[in-house]
TrEMBL record:
This is Adenylosuccinate lyase. PROSITE patterns: FUMARATE_LYASES (PS00163). Pathway: Purine metabolism; AMP biosynthesis via de novo pathway; AMP from IMP: step 2/2; Purine metabolism; IMP biosynthesis via de novo pathway; 5-amino-1-(5-phospho-D-ribosyl)imidazole-4-carboxamide from 5-amino-1-(5-phospho-D-ribosyl)imidazole-4-carboxylate: step 2/2. GO terms for biological process: 'de novo' AMP biosynthetic process; 'de novo' IMP biosynthetic process; amino acid biosynthetic process. It comes from Alkaliphilus metalliredigens (strain QYMF). It comes from the Bacteria.
Amino acid sequence: MDTSLYQNPLIERYASKEISYLFSADYKFTTWRKLWIALAESQQELGVNITDQQIQEMKRHMTTINYDVAKKREKETRHDVMSHVYAFGEQCPQAKGIIHLGATSAFVGDNTDVIVMTEALKLLRKKIINLFHKLAVFSQDYHDLPTLGFTHFQPAQLTTVGKRATLWLHDLLMDFENLEFQIGRMKLRGAKGTTGTQASFLHLLDGDHEKVKSLDKKVAEKMGFNDTYAVTGQTYSRKLDFEVLSVLSGIAQSLHKMTNDIRLLQNLKEIEEPFEKNQIGSSAMAYKRNPMRSERVASLSRYVIAASQNAAMTASTQWFERTLDDSANKRITIPESFLATDAILDITTNICDGLVVYKQVIKQRVESELPFMATENILMEAVRRGGDRQELHEKIRVHSMEAAKQVKIHGNKNDLIQRILSDDEFNLKQEDLEKLLDARNFVGRAPEQVKDFLTEFIQPILDQNKSSIGGKVDLQV
């Protein structure tokens, strides 16, 4: 590694090798050559004078990219596509004259972008399914463990640890559905020519409109796509980039919210992200166990969310059939958005693989707040035993205020239950209150909701994608 130059941290530190390969030069320029071969084969099938020998020669050099020749040529011509046409032609002297026949730069540039984004979306799909698997196991394991719910980050009614995890899963399920939809509607730009009119191909195919339409379809099929966009300018609509990055933004939003919750829970010492044996939390405070993985997810998520706005601005500022002010922006925004999304999915999966739940801390916090929540049940039971509802209501109000003072002003434990036990007007014994204060009575249908959600929505996805599940995520840092 050249340490004297800036290195991209997404590659050095965060993203997986799989996603990095999809955006590599090797994948890009091999795909260019596959497209040129698909074009030549399709043209041959439609009667253009292209020989089998020419196509076989191109195939022999499909993956052996002579970068040095292309780089030298680009320095002279300032044109990347023509430099690679030249370099490919150097390796294929028989086919040199028919490479890129009738095509414009967007034939390889835009079609390759669509192919790379499609494959990258499929990779993210696989990663979300693995995250589903980890979160589903966690939700099921803790489906009935009562925990304090929060609204406004203030104590609220109880929920369960597993139910809270299903909220994270539900957000990701919405993202998964958007991802599936987007993968299903990805199309090639196809063979459309310089301004999308297919004029060059119409000339090449002797004015035969049906053959031109067939050429478009044949190229798509050879590249693994069912269809091409019906109309384009010189490029596919840049709205596609925004739609794709919007899907990534949705994933980032979900993971940012989820890891925010984990960071807050770690502060409360209820749940912690994994902390390895030799991991250091702070350079100064050796005892600290910072939620650095969740913080990293939040940090990269904001980058992905912001990047989708970049694609929106590019789409909205295009002129007529195209302008080139999209190119440099796309080269950075799209790969880095995918690399960052890949990273946050891997990091979150790693977190969920080792989440630590501190049941006793959760129980203590529930017990400290439950007496206030149980006052309505206590009141009803005392009335059932002959008490006056209005008098007891006032007594509970006074006792509650005194108990709150003990907690907030004196730093003592919540003694509301002891105050009620000492008040004969309630006619309740210790065992009576213990039954009323069973936390499981305050979680509503949370355990059942977890089971229903997992059974009806998550498990079918996991069952349909068993082959995609497995493996352990090892983070680079």
